[in-house]
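Components:
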Amino acid sequence: MNRPLLAPRRPGSPGTRRRRHTGTLLGLVAWLCGIGFFLPVAWMVLTSFHSETDAATNPPSLGAGLSLHGYREFFGAGSGISPWPPLINSLTASVASTLLVLLLAVPAAYALAIKPVRKWSDVLFFFLSTKMLPLVAGLLPVYLVAQNTGMLDSIWLLVLLYTSMNLPIAVWMMRSFLAEVPVEMLEAASIDGAGLTTTLTRIVAPVAMPGIAATALISFIFSWNELLFARVLTGIVAGTSPVFLTGLVTSQGLFLAKVCAAATVISLPVIAAGFAAQDKLVQGLSLGAVK
Amino acid sequence: MPIRTTEPAPAAEVAAVDRGGDPAARARRTERARNWARRAPLLPALVFLVIVTQLPFVATVVISFTRWNALAPENRGFAAFDNYRAVFTDPAMRASVGTTVLLTVTVVLVSLLLGLGLALLLDRGFRGRGIVRTLLITPFLVVPVASALLWKHALYNASYGLLNGSLTWIWRLFGSDDPPQPDWMTDSPLAAVEVSLIWQWTPFMMLILLAGLQSRATDAIEAARMDGASAFDIFRYLTLPHLRRYLELAALLGTVYVVQNFDAVFTITSGGLGTANLPYTIYQTFYQAHDYGRASAQGVVVVLCSLLVATFALRTVSSLLREEVTR
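Structure:
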């Protein structure tokens, strides 16, 4: 969106020219900031394509030849441990909990946004307040229960916990997306004699679908990123990618190219998803309060 | 939240309706049925959350009053406030409270200011704005553990990290073979954690503030400019008041997440050299010292502190919500 903030009042006047120069300069500053913030990520990717010796040089070896050594090591071709079980665990936990989140959040958000129950804002705030409490405070009882029921080191325990972690945000997001369905449309539908199913599939779903997608995406990202629960509650069998990533360094010493390759591969799904849904991401992360 | 079963009541009412057909009772019955139909979709989510988040916390409160160390299972019993006394007299715990506050305030404030600057830059049109925006949000999208590892090993490392590597390179440009090679993580461990978190959270602040800037009414700004207001006046009297809520929201949401940070502290310094924050301290008490009673007491204290922040956060969100409702 190019808003003409620099709309010229009198074209060609010295003031306008000066303002145009300032505009170019500020654009340049913005570019420099963008590159500066991106630089560590670029460095991570570049290092991941270096050989271990080229990765660990001082000064940095920018011109060194590219190598897939780090990636081969990460995927377990050399002496490395295979990353596939953790990657699959992460995928299972994130996808399953995201599905469960949607299953619970969509009806709840429907009750809160379209057919508001009484005291709906209180209910909404209850959801939010659970998100504000530090997760670490409930970790011990969960650990003890899991230990006694044999759920320790099981991916399904993580699925339950990730669902509870993401459900409050999902309800908030979904509510704000569903609130965008115009009331007039719903009334018109009910006058025309549309039943609940028709209303949901024909009117609510089309408006809410991008919102549901964004909610799913954010839920997926948070589950994929989670470390504390996964580290405490899983072990050999159900360890997720972040746990695997922390283990790469401590167990085998440091192989910089390999660690960078691992970090790149594990971050890639989140980065791709985030790029695809930049705008919805903002709305979701601010709990629907920012449009 | 008490969940009552209403089975007996409607049954009795159905009987009453069948006997005589009291219209008031029928109206009440349909009203109640409609209320339940409205509430029903909400219940699974509510029940799930209560079971998975509230019950464990209640258990935490109970355990916090017991003497319970997994390494000494026979010595277990009621401890009254001993754990809390230990928490409040423990210098390490007090230090971690200080660290948490310092870490959170620094990260949130700096990333908020940087985010504001970047949002203002991005709010104006320039060539390649979409690309710059995408570049800027990338740090937020890197998996937190990955970004912590990246900072620790690829950037901060004293012998081959990018920071010292760049210093060597710059010094060589000027013909010197003796560049300064500070050990960033040992010299200023907390700052090292903070910088990585600021890098990660600035994009989040920027995104929210940018959305705030773009929801500004342009006509007031146009009018002010017509009247000859300077750019600074427009920022001071129009933009900033409009942004206030968004600044509050960004700060509070950032606080909620940064207070709970575990990944960066765990990965970059392992809580060493005065960087242990509350989540990390609890993790240690529970996972390494196996002192369940004390870890729970710490957890309860953290929750009480978080409630303070949360109250403000909820109030801000609620004011935004009211605005939405009255619109």
